[in-house]
Design brief:
The structure holds three protein chains of three kinds.
Chain A: H1 9-18, H2 49-62, E1 70-71, H3 84-90, H4 93-96, H5 108-125, E2 129-130, H6 137-152, E3 156-159, H7 165-176, E4 181-184, E5 187-188, E6 191-192, H8 194-200, E7 205-212, H9 222-231, E8 235-240, E9 258-262, E10 278-282, E11 295-299, E12 305-309, H10 316-319, H11 332-370, E13 375-376, E14 385-389, H12 394-403, E15 406-407, E16 410-411, E17 421-425, H13 432-443
Parallel strand pairs in A: 1-15, 3-4, 3-7, 7-8, 8-9
Antiparallel strand pairs in A: 2-10, 5-6, 9-10, 11-12, 13-14, 14-17, 16-17
Chain B: E1 8-9, E2 14-19, E3 22-27, H1 29-35, E4 38-42, E5 49-50, E6 55-61, E7 65-69, E8 74-79, H2 82-85, H3 89-92, E9 100-104, H4 116-126
Antiparallel strand pairs in B: 1-2, 2-3, 3-9, 4-6, 5-8, 6-7, 8-9
Chain C: H1 31-34, H2 52-63, H3 86-93, H4 95-98, H5 110-127, E1 131-133, H6 139-156, E2 164-168, H7 174-181, E3 185-189, H8 199-205, E4 210-215, H9 228-237, E5 241-244, H10 258-261, E6 265-267, E7 288-290, E8 302-306, E9 309-313, H11 330-366, E10 382-385, H12 397-406, E11 413-414, E12 423-426, H13 434-453, H14 455-459, H15 472-478
Parallel strand pairs in C: 2-3, 2-4, 4-5, 5-6
Antiparallel strand pairs in C: 1-7, 6-7, 8-9, 10-12, 11-12
Helix pairs in contact in C: 3-11, 5-11, 6-7, 11-13
Classes of the chains: A alpha/beta, B alpha+beta, C alpha/beta.
């Protein structure tokens, strides 16, 4: 007997008899004999709950997690504070064991949560419409590129160089298969070189893409880049840190056409890389070109307010080959966590978390520079992450920090060729004491 | 099912009404019924030059999206903007509410289309 | 229960807070001195202002308007809504397995890498394949990865003219959409009435430009494609590759394997076959497995084992690259591996056998009350073609589905596959008891009787749900996509 399979031998027998069958193999007569799998799969036999728990705990114990390490590592995934309510609400099985809300009458919970999520993403980004979420930030970027190419009927995207390597690798894969050209823009002081952008804008350019704050944590001149893109009839696409939008000028205010990003820091754990959620918001003009699900408000037959999936004709199950994307899901539960997070943090809390991150990051920056062992890599305003260059390799620095149970910064020597370059992220969660400990370890390297 | 005499018809359920140099194009009653409640109509830009068989628009219901194809080649000289705000007009009367007007490029293309009785027969087979 | 009708913004009140952050403990500096004001937000942030109690009550009330697997039977065809074991959730939530940064040094995440490695190996074994990537985030994402691999394979061979992928018209919508996303041309062939591949149509569709064929087996009608060996030969002999859409894997674990059927590349839906929750629409996970000749094209990084240590291998020059940030929906991978360990090889085989038994049992009874287009042994699901009724009746499959809501069920999948017009697609899965199946069958029979006696009862259903029949036309017309605003 298997505990997830209620029907045992007696049930089996009764059910087979009702069909006039003796052996369950008769239900598999349609599989040609030569294709039948005759042996046993090379897997263990079923294990008890206790045995499985033991194995998994052993695996967990082989890891060093963020409750044991103090993290100054960011680079796209951030250790922001996650309120307890999120875990509890996301653990309600009415939410997590439900399917996609195709039957709106019994899915109003999911539908309304996602509608609220869309509303709050619009609020953060200052844009008109948001979809119900995509797999993650990097794939959202790829989808935005495809959208821009379709919309403008052009096939080149200009891309800031200081973007996450994860984004770079994903957009390069997706675009390669669609013959859409990616042209990286030169860097100047860690930012997009405006002269280079000017010279590369031509009639083939579908979109201008920038991460903001960029991968180095620096604030780009998004507004100026947007104006330049628009003057060239290209779309402006910004990849933003949602927490930063509580403090920084939002994409809508800057005229950006499509804002995307990773919603991990909105109440989702670090989860060793996933699941997270990719958000995507745009202006009204692009609504029918957006990929993924969208929830709309409507009424039931009695005139009561209700919600339903809408604009479904963009999607694969209806438009098939001509769909705006092949995506068939959203990161529903992660979007729910983001919605609960934004509600919990609220108008004041989210801004405070963002401001504290800025304050603490700048404090850490000044202290680290103050040791005399590190120099700033760039001279430009930053948000919660910054790059410094030391006397030793980031690898050596991080090894020493790990011994003191500190998860060090991101090593910029490999993907960005910045020798001895290291990038630290500081969220509101880090205390002065933790920062001072980091600094003291860096001082004696 | 309503079919209007004197128009030309395609197998994709578009109709063409010729008035001098100009031809009005719409979808048939049969097509609008097949689609159900129409919620959105996308039309081309004026001055677009389209060849016979090109997509000139998209008609969407909640559960279906259907491309509209040019029955004849020509330049779009007018679009029925009323449909952008009230797409349901196509459900109300598909023959009254044309979608685009085109300047014909080659009148002989009309000969390849069906007349009303041929179209009726065609629809009967489709059902 | 109390009727609750509010949107979170409607319970907002200035000054309310649901969070107390630790006070700032470093010396506060004016924000403008750190970030020039031209970069700063000018508008107020319009998020709700609510207390923690408000948040908890609000979302708990919303959850009560949802129907989940823990609420009851969920026979959604092609979705494999099997029970989501609780141990999976506990394991995935272990701090040691979840509070991990993806860029942590490999030596600090050996346990997680071991789980990923073992999952890769187990999935390859179940599918009869050689190597697996767990990076794709969902089934459709797995399809995209697999089709990209097919393209990379042909391009490496210099076969740039191989630009066409064939799919049957009974396929999942993601198949043709994936073909487009990967930059291939689509050739759609008509299926036979039983949902099987029309070999003549397939032969006609094959030419020098053939890149591959996408197929699911059992088919979307829940029937095993018995011609699969012949199909595989046809495709392979013409230089193409076979892609297996793993949506229907729950029928065949331990009984037959896609690799043995001749498929070159496939995806799994961990949120279907391997019991991870659907989450109201995601996150899912869609690992992709390939035969050895395609292994070099798998995405980077792969988890590899070297001298009892686990590591990420980025050195894969012919890889298609990355399809997702980091390594996949890792939290889902942990759940799926927990399930595989719990079930074991004996449990997985029993699961498929019981899923098939449950489906056949239901089909055998329901065919007296609903049209059954194909009366033959089905696999894990079956498709009915609506009610048996006279031509004048206007009761549709949609009405049947809505009426089932009143009986407390999530209805089956409707209007898919497209080749069956009034399609009702039922997939009971193995995690339902005979008693549950019998009760549902009884409800289906009752609805069929009601359709004859009082059609309006069905046409106006549902009556007992949190909201009644929802106006989807209005939703598409007015396009209110965020609170207090319309386009």
């Amino acid at each position: 007997m298997f505990r997830y399979i209620p029907n045992g031998d007696d049930d089996r027998k009764a059910m087979l008899e009702s069909m006039g069958i003796n052996d369950i193999e008769e239900l598999f007569i349609d599989i040609p004999e030569e294709l039948k799998f005759k042996g046993e799969l090379n897997l263990d036999l079923a294990k008890s709950e206790q045995e499985v728990m033991k194995y998994m705990s052993d695996m967990a114990n082989k890891n060093q997690d963020l409750s044991q390490l103090t993290s100054f590592l960011g680079a796209g995934v951030y250790d922001h504070f996650v309120p307890s309510v999120i875990k509890h609400l996301a653990s309600r099985s009415e939410f997590y064991t439900a399917y996609t809300p195709y039957q709106p009458e019994i899915s109003q919970g999911t539908l309304q949560v996602i509608f609220e999520y869309q509303s709050m993403i619009c609020e953060l980004t200052g844009l008109d419409v948001s979809n119900a979420s995509l797999y993650d930030g990097p794939t959202a970027a790829a989808e935005a590129f495809l959208l821009a190419a379709t919309q403008t009927k052009r096939n080149k995207i200009l891309v800031g160089n200081a973007i996450s390597p994860e984004i770079k690798k994903v957009i390069e894969t997706y675009m390669k298969f669609r013959d859409i050209e990616i042209v990286y823009l030169a860097e100047k002081n860690g930012l997009v070189d405006m002269t280079d952008l000017e010279s590369k804008l031509d009639k083939e350019v579908a979109g201008v893409f920038v991460q903001n704050p960029n991968f180095y944590g620096l604030i780009e001149e998004v507004e100026k880049m947007t104006e330049m893109a628009h003057a060239n009839k290209a779309l402006s696409i910004a990849y933003v840190d949602p927490i930063s939008l509580a403090v920084l000028k939002n994409p809508g205010e800057m005229g950006v056409d499509i804002a995307i990003g990773d919603g991990q820091s909105l109440g989702n754990g670090t989860n060793f890389g996933g699941p997270y959620l990719g958000f995507m918001a745009s202006n009204n003009k692009l609504v029918r070109k957006l990929p993924g699900r969208i929830i709309g408000q409507t009424e039931d037959v009695d005139g009561k307010r209700a919600w339903a999936l809408t604009l479904a004709t963009r999607e694969q199950h209806i438009r098939r080959y001509k769909a705006t994307s092949n995506i068939c899901s959203n990161q529903g539960l992660n979007a729910l966590m983001a919605a609960v997070y934004m509600s919990t943090m609220g108008k004041v809390g989210l801004r405070e978390a963002a401001l504290q991150s800025v304050q603490k990051a700048h404090y850490a920056y000044n202290q680290i520079i103050g040791t005399g062992k590190f120099k700033p890599a760039f001279d430009a305003p930053f948000f919660k992450e910054f790059v410094v260059v030391g006397e030793k390799s980031a690898e050596v620095v991080n090894e020493a920090l790990l011994k003191a149970n500190i998860l060090g910064g991101y090593d910029l020597s490999k993907e960005f060729g910045l020798d001895n370059g290291i990038m630290f992220a500081v969220t509101e969660k880090r205390t002065k004491e933790e920062i001072d400990t980091l600094v003291s370890k860096l001082e004696v390297l | 099912m309503k079919i209007v005499e004197g128009l030309y018809y395609t197998e994709e359920h578009e109709w063409v009404k010729v008035e001098g140099e100009k031809a009005y194009v719409g979808i048939t009653d049969f097509a609008s019924h097949q689609l159900g409640d129409i919620v959105f109509v996308e039309l081309p830009e004026v001055d677009a030059e389209l060849a016979k068989g090109d997509t000139f628009g998209v008609i969407e219901s909640v559960k279906a999206a259907s491309d509209s194809y040019m029955p004849v080649s020509g330049t779009v000289v007018e679009i029925n903007e009323a449909l952008e705000d009230e797409p349901e007009l196509l459900n109300a009367d598909a023959f009254e509410n044309w979608m685009i007007a085109v300047e014909l490029k080659d009148e002989s293309e009309l000969e390849e289309l069906m007349n009303a009785s041929e179209y009726e027969e065609f629809c009967n087979k489709e059902e | 229960m109390r009727k609750y009708e509010k949107v979170i913004f409607e319970i907002s009140k200035p000054g309310r807070k649901a969070i107390n952050l630790t006070d700032l403990d470093v010396e506060e500096v004016a924000i403008e001195s750190m970030i020039p004001s031209e970069f700063l937000r000018k508008e107020e942030l319009g998020l709700p202002e609510v207390s923690e109690v408000d948040v908890v009550r609000h979302y708990t009330n919303l959850s009560n308007k949802n129907y989940g697997l823990d609420t009851g039977f969920y026979p959604l065809g092609s979705c494999t809504m099997k029970y989501n074991p609780k141990i999976n959730e506990d394991v995935a939530a272990m701090t040691g397995l979840s509070a991990l940064h993806p860029y942590q040094p490999e030596e600090t995440v050996q346990g997680s890498l071991e789980i990923m490695y073992n999952l890769q190996t187990a999935l390859a074994e179940i599918g009869g394949m050689d190597e697996t990537t767990v990076q794709p985030a969902a089934g459709a994402h797995g399809e995209l990865t697999g089709i990209m691999i097919i393209k990379a394979y042909h391009q490496k061979n210099g076969d740039f003219h191989r630009t066409k992928i064939i799919t049957p018209d009974s396929s999942h919508g993601t198949n043709p959409a994936t073909v487009a996303t990967a930059g291939f041309e689509l050739v759609e062939i008509k299926s036979k009435a039983d949902g099987s591949v029309d070999l003549e149509a397939l032969k006609e569709a094959i030419d020098d430009n053939l890149a591959g064929l996408m197929l699911t087996n059992p088919s979307t009608l829940g029937l095993f494609e018995t011609q699969i060996s012949e199909i595989a030969s046809l495709i392979h002999d013409n230089g193409g590759l076979l892609y297996y859409d793993g949506a229907n894997m729950n029928a065949i674990m331990g009984k037959t394997r896609p690799g043995d059927m001749g498929f070159d590349v496939m995806h799994y839906n961990l949120h279907k076959t391997f019991s991870t929750p659907h989450g109201g629409g995601g996150p899912g996970s869609g690992p992709v497995a390939v035969k050895a000749h395609l292994a070099e094209f798998l995405p980077t990084p792969m988890v590899v084992k070297k001298d009892d240590k686990y590591a990420f291998d980025y050195d894969r020059p012919n890889s298609i690259g990355k399809v997702k940030g980091y390594y996949g929906n890792y939290g889902i991978l942990v759940r799926a591996y927990t399930y595989i360990m719990t079930m074991g090889r004996d449990g997985l085989k029993n699961a498929s056998e019981t899923a098939v038994l449950n489906a056949n049992y239901m089909m055998n009874i329901l065919k007296e009350y609903y049209k059954l287009p194909m009366d033959q042994v089905c696999k894990h699901e079956f498709v009915l073609d609506g009610l048996i009724q006279d031509a004048l009746s206007e009761v549709s499959t949609l009405d049947v589905a809505k009426r089932l809501l009143d009986y407390g069920y999530h209805p089956p999948t409707i209007y898919f596959p497209l080749i069956v017009h009034q399609s009702i697609m039922i997939e009971p899965t193995e995690t339902e008891s005979k008693e549950t199946l019998d009760e549902f069958i009884e409800a289906m029979i009752k609805v069929a009787k009601e359709a004859k006696e009082d059609p309006s009862l069905l046409k106006n259903a549902p009556y007992n749900t949190p909201v009644r029949r929802v106006n989807e036309v209005l939703a598409a017309k007015q396009l209110i996509l965020k609170y207090k605003d319309s386009l």
